[in-house]
Amino acid sequence: MNGNIYHNRKAQWAIYLAAFAALALLPIFFDSPFTLNLLARYCVFALLAVSVSLVWGYAGILSLGQAIAFGLAAYGMAMTMQMQYQDPVSDPIPSFMLTNELETLPLVWAPFWSTPIGLILTFGVPTVFFIVFGILMFQARVAGVFVAIMTLAMTAAWYSMAYDMQPFTAGFNGISPPLPFQIFGTEVDPYSAGAYWVCVAFLAVLTLGAKFLMQTKFGLIVQAIRDDAERARFLGYNVAYYQVVVFALSGFLAASAGFCWVLIVQYVSPTSLEIVFSISIVIWAAVGGRTSLLGAIIGAFLVNGMQSFVGDELQQVWMLILGAIFIGVVLFLPRGLAGFFELVLGLFSGRREPQKSDWNTGRTSAVTKESAE
Amino acid sequence: MSVNDFWTPFALLPFLNALIIGISLISIWLIAALGLTIIYGTMGVINMAHGEFIMLGAYSTYVLQTLIGIPFLLCLPLSFLILAAIGWVIERGVIRTLYRRPLDTLLATWGLSLILVQGVRLIFGGEPQYVGVPSWLNFQIQADFIHLSGLRLFIIVMAIVMVAVTWFLLYRTTLGICVRAVMQDKEMAASFGIDANRIYSLTFCYGAGLAGVAGSMFGALKTLFPDMGGGYIVEAFLVVVVGGVQLAGSVLSASLLGELNSIFSYFTNDTFARFVLFTLVVVFLRIRPQGLLAEKMTRR
Predict the structure, then answer these.
(1) What is the tens place of the pLDDT at every residue in B253-263?
(2) Which 34-53 residues of chain B touch chain A by CB within 8 A?
(3) What's the rounded mean pLDDT across residues B81-86?
(4) Does A314 contact B at CB distance below 8 Å?
(5) Mean pLDDT across the stretch A347-370?
(6) Least CB–CB distance from A319: residue in B46, B101, B117
(7) Torsion over CA of A295, A300, A301 and A302, rounded to 10 degrees?
(8) B115 vs A323: CB contact, 8 Å cut-off?
(9) Which of residues 154-193 of B touch A (CB under 8 A)?
């Protein structure tokens, strides 16, 4: 293998493992609970960016609806935690329902009495929704821009639901469970290293799993479909099947992020289903490099880290900067930082000519196909 | 919450009034979607900043009216020109390099919309602003079941005018023939001596200008916020996509979606209607991804 070391699989795995090991060791250096919680939040955002990278970078499906899975899971988790606090006899329904004149616990809330069922719903509902939604879209060979607009519309629809169903979701105020999550008889303190490690573990396991999957035959077919869906179809592959599976997996990843989010912030509101938030996830992945899972993680850390660093007084200017960064990345660095690294490493390895099969160079034709469908 | 809080039973007169509110809604969605239809239809550019163009139109009307004292009716063509100029700059600066990469135009224009919202917030502040409604529009039509303000009636008339003008430009002028030629096949049109890039520039300017006019009227109808544009973008896109990215299609789909929305809102409430409508659109796009009225058009 004399080629670009960026494409060397052993090197890639080494870098990935090193990155996650470094993430896991961070609590040694930062023991302030506030910093740990902040880092855990970045990990959640990174997991979301990975879910976008998987579905957009590897499968060529631009989903603007990752917030749906995130938000649904976050609501599921918040409901589970809220019901852990409620007592079946003395205090059977959450207080915000009382202020909304509900006298009995709504049916959708009842399963959350049981923590295991609550957790199953937390992960299951978003994933099943993405499977159904994916089947709906990809069976009809919807592609490209239309997927983006349909996922966008769906996000807007769910947002207005969460916002409007005040007796069930506490509307704009959101649900804030009074106590941390309890499992196996222990309490997961949101500001502890333990909660941070839970987030890192989710991020590491799911990212490595996604990376492994994308190197198997399944992943190669997915990437072939991204490069030219029509050709893959002619070769006899069931394109819709592969697209639905990847879409559902990305939904599962985003749902895991939603689970971790409520675990560490103990709060959920309709903002987690907002369009602005949903597209921000795409921004993180795009900045870091959508065709690289680790790139997406770096992008999420970088953008959110910068946002925290800029501080409150400059929040106003921050959106200007973010918008400019984003336009700049789209115009000049379409493959993000990871693409830039690939280019630089390529210069050192002596093979200067770009890869012909690269998605980026082949994109013009792929996009023509997309708008054709 | 009992069933009756949620479900309004049918009654003829209020229902008819809901249908009339629907017509007002149709005109608003159609005006918002018109510029998008032109831009997306001709150039294949997904302009996520279209809502922000509308917002800029509203704010330029506010500036013209409040600070310079120009009458409302004159503000409409002026904000058309202002937005067309802004559109020209944006087309030259950002969009031009992204033709044939529709997904990237979507992302770049999203970045643009962040900048526009924040820029306006920095200049005008986050508090609401108002565009004054001229006194000759301050009347109410009130019959048994009809409640319609003069402004809403004006917007309905303007929607018809804007569609008519756009139709005339597209189908009755030489420029329109050029636009439709580029729309169908850019290379072929270019080989007949049509400067496709110039057509693209003009189309984008025109689409942005339409958003400017839309903004003037929406500004009079509602309060001005820097992020008011976000409230139109999803509906406008759905109108365009359901219509099949065509002028007539957009008129048809705006009519359909607007009426359906006000019927659903009549029986339930606004937000639930939105949920049902968006879900229906997604299901509809699954059955007819090409939209209501798309012929087998040449693909870009």
Answers:
(1) 999 998 898 88
(2) 44, 46
(3) 95
(4) no
(5) 49
(6) B117
(7) 80
(8) yes
(9) none
The reply to whether A235 touches chain B by the CB within 8 Å rule is no
- pLDDT over threshold 50, residue B56: yes
In angstroms, rounded to a whole number, what is the distance separating the alpha carbons of residues A169 and A74?
12
Q: Is there a contact between B94 and A327 if contact means CB atoms under 8 Å apart?
A: yes
Question: Could you give the 3-state DSSP secondary structure of residue A256?
Answer: helix
Q: Is B275 on the interface with A (CB under 8 A)?
A: yes
If you average pLDDT over residues A43-69, what whole number do you get? Answer: 92
Q: What is the DSSP letter of A56?
A: I
Give the pair of three-digit tokens for residue B122: 């920095």
Question: What distance in Å separates the CA atoms of residue A174 and residue A166, rounded to the nearest whole number?
Answer: 9
Whether ipTM > 0.90 holds is no
Note whether A161 contacts B230, CB cutoff 8 Å: no
Between A193-215 and A293-310, two packed helices, what is the crossing angle to 10 degrees? 150
- SS3 annotation, chain B: CCHHHHCCCCCHHHHHHHHHHHHHHHHHHHHHHHHHHHHHHHHCCCCCCHHHHHHHHHHHHHHHHHHHCCCHHHHHHHHHHHHHHHHHHHHHHCHHHHCCCHHHHHHHHHHHHHHHHHHHHHHHCCCCECCCCCHHHCCEEECCCCEEEHHHHHHHHHHHHHHHHHHHHHHHCHHHHHHHHHHHCHHHHHHCCCCHHHHHHHHHHHHHHHHHHHHHHHHHHCCECCCCCHHHHHHHHHHHHHHCCCHHHHHHHHHHHHHHHHHHHHHCCHHHHHHHHHHHHHHHHHHCCCCCCCCCCCCC
* pLDDT (tens digit per residue) in A187-205: 777 777 788 888 999 999 9
Pairing of strands B140-142, A186-188: unpaired
Cα B19–chain centre separation:
20
Interface of B with A in 231-250 (CB under 8 A): 234, 237-238, 241
How close, in Å, is residue B245 to chain A by CA atoms? 12
Contacts of B237 in chain A (CB under 8 A): 149, 152-153
Instruction: Give the model confidence (pLDDT) of B103-156 as tens digits.
Output: 888 888 989 998 999 899 888 887 888 888 887 777 777 776 677 788 888 889
Domain ranges of chain A: 5-372
B113 in contact with A at a CB cutoff of 8 Å?
A: yes
> Pick from A126, A37, A25: which is nearest to A75 by CA?
A126
